[in-house]
Amino acid sequence: MTTLQSHPDKLSKDQQPAFSCADIVFNLPLKDAFTYEIPLHFNGMIKKGMRVFVPFGRRRITGYVVDISNRQKKNILLKAIEEVPDSEPVISKELLSLTRWIADYYHSSWGEAIKAALPAGLDDTSLDELHLTEKGLKVLKEGNPSSKATYILQTLHLKKKLTSRQLERSLKKKYSAGTLASLKRDELVKVENKIKRSFLKYKYEKIIRTAKNLPKKEEIEKLLKRSPKQRAVYEFLRKGEASTSDLNNKIPGSSQTIKKLLDKNIVEIFTSKKEQESTHSNRVPKQTVEKPLQMNKEQEECYRAVKQSIEKSVFQPYLLHGVTGSGKTEIY
């Protein structure tokens, strides 16, 4: 079981005061949601639809918040949410509702449905990496261990760090889970937990704009009368908001000017959160626009039938029956 955590902002009905707990689902074939405690330092921050990083068994994995409450069963010690990577929900209320329906209809877990609906690369995961201890290295050099243990120790000595799965793939039939467990128990092999972060990162920018409650026009004229640089910044921002870096490029040395305009209540600053391009996204090949599909007579009939159901907002399962190459996939 786990918990959510929040900020000292205003609380909505998705956020609870004092003791709070959150129901979290995972990308695992498990029907039930798991309850976690929301630590005080996350109070007011966590909302439905946000991702959280929590302990789960011996691992730490990403989960999705589907409910928040201040109820707790007595005498049950809840695990706490460790990290909150989002400042706002990544799953909308509509998407939560849709994925819940998908999970019920297709007999999957809610977490699996959510995972399928989100872009790849959003989740943090934890990995257990194996490496040789000094004791293990000494035993390997002395040549005392059994043959299966020697294979494991030699591979870890050569590769430095491997997960259990990578070790199994390297050794194939020479791998023995029982032997590995004995090596860990005898402190010849050590396990370290490493968090593999998602490649989706964010950057924060300070944005400047004219104040929502500007002084009257005559008052602004009076405030800027003897300040040509302040007037230049003000006129620039009247065309639209700008980041501090962009503004400084257009009007060099505007940092002090901004402070003075802030004191006069002519401009305001807020922080904007944006996705940062990653090296992963740069590796994705550019998509080319395909020509519109030219449907044959049978495809046109199938398409019209499906389209009518969609336009009437009526859920209706359809079976597309046809030989290989008849065009079923294009309709799908």
Automatic annotation (TrEMBL):
Which residues lie within the region annotated Disordered? 274-295
Thylakoid recorded as keyword: no
Keywords for this entry? ATP-binding, DNA-binding, Nucleotide-binding
* InterPro entries named among the record's database cross-references: P-loop_NTPase, PriA_3primeBD, PriA_3primeBD_sf
SUPFAM superfamilies the record matches: P-loop containing nucleoside triphosphate hydrolases
Q: Which GO terms describe its molecular function?
A: 3'-5' DNA helicase activity; ATP binding; DNA binding
Q: Where is the signal peptide?
A: none
The processes (GO biological process) annotated in the record are: DNA recombination; DNA replication initiation; double-strand break repair
UniProt KW Ribonucleoprotein keyword = no
Q: Where is the Primosomal protein N' 3' DNA-binding domain?
A: 23-119
Concerning PANTHER family, the annotation shows:
PRIMOSOMAL PROTEIN N
Protein name as it appears in the record = Primosomal protein N' 3' DNA-binding domain-containing protein
- What is the scientific name of the source organism? marine metagenome
Lineage of this protein's species? unclassified sequences, metagenomes, ecological metagenomes
